[in-house]
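Quick review question:
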């Protein structure tokens, strides 16, 4: 085989690896980060709701 054929095989293997392993792993990591982000936002909203409720209870 010629050098170009070896290079094409290596590039093909690299592309297949990215499609099968690397890209899905990166997507999963991104989804996990987003989930944590939304959990944090939810906690902040809950805390704000508690503060508002306490202030309303005190005002009445």
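Suggested answer, residue by residue:
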């Amino acid at each position: 085989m010629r050098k170009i054929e070896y290079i094409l095989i290596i590039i093909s293997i690299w592309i297949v690896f990215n499609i099968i392993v690397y890209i899905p792993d990166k997507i999963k990591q991104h989804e996990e980060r987003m989930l944590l982000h939304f959990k944090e936002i939810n906690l902040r909203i809950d805390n704000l709701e508690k503060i508002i409720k306490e202030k309303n209870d005190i005002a009445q």
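Why it works: Residues 25-60 form one domain. Residues 3-59 form the longest helix (57 residues).
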